[in-house]
Write a structure and sequence with these properties.
alpha+beta, 3 helices
Length: about 180
């Protein structure tokens, strides 16, 4: 029994080694291409063949083990059987909801760069952070501890920053401060 497992492991390892050398040869051929687009297309083709081979190996391996257990058919290597099977590549794939969970879908929207407002009132909290009331009734609080001067009646802008943050600034100065909307 151990001899059969050892023989099976050697066969699988030799198939993997042969597949790796073929893959390395294909990748080196792609790397030689001078044109960026041709090189990218070559890499995409190699990736598609590797993916198809992996899918076919799994399918053929299960079919081979079922046929060996039911009949006395000759043993076929998965890589040889996969090479003889014709497979069509689907152009559009649909994802199962479980597979797309957590992925953000990028939607091309017309995003606003800056919104301009007039300052109605400026206060400070006990920690010295600015609390700015705008003319439209919105209240924004400074989330950084930096010193930033805003006057009542001044025209300011609020723009979207990195990681869903917002920046408050004015056109007459070259600095901004992070703010958070309270109301």
């Amino acid at each position: 029994m151990r001899l059969t497992w050892i023989a099976a492991a050697i066969i699988v390892a030799s198939n993997s080694a042969q597949a790796n050398t073929e893959l390395e040869q294909q990748l080196s051929i792609c790397a030689i291409k001078a044109d960026k687009l041709e090189r990218l297309i070559c890499y995409d083709d190699v990736a598609a063949t590797v993916q198809l081979t992996n899918q076919n190996d799994a399918t053929v391996a299960t079919a081979v083990t079922k046929s060996v257990t039911t009949t006395n058919a000759p043993i076929v290597k998965p890589s040889q059987a996969a090479a003889s099977i014709a497979v069509s590549v689907p152009v559009a794939t649909t994802q199962v909801p479980d597979e797309s969970f957590g992925l953000q879908k990028k939607v091309a929207e017309d995003e606003i760069e800056k919104l301009y407002f007039k300052v109605a009132d400026v206060d400070k909290d006990p920690y010295g952070a600015l609390i700015i009331t705008l003319a439209n009734g919105q209240i924004w609080k400074q989330s950084q501890s930096d010193r930033y001067k805003v006057n009542k009646g001044q025209k300011i802008y609020i723009k979207k920053g990195a990681l869903s943050s917002f920046l408050l600034g004015s056109d007459d100065r070259n600095s901004t401060t992070r703010v958070k909307r309270i109301k």
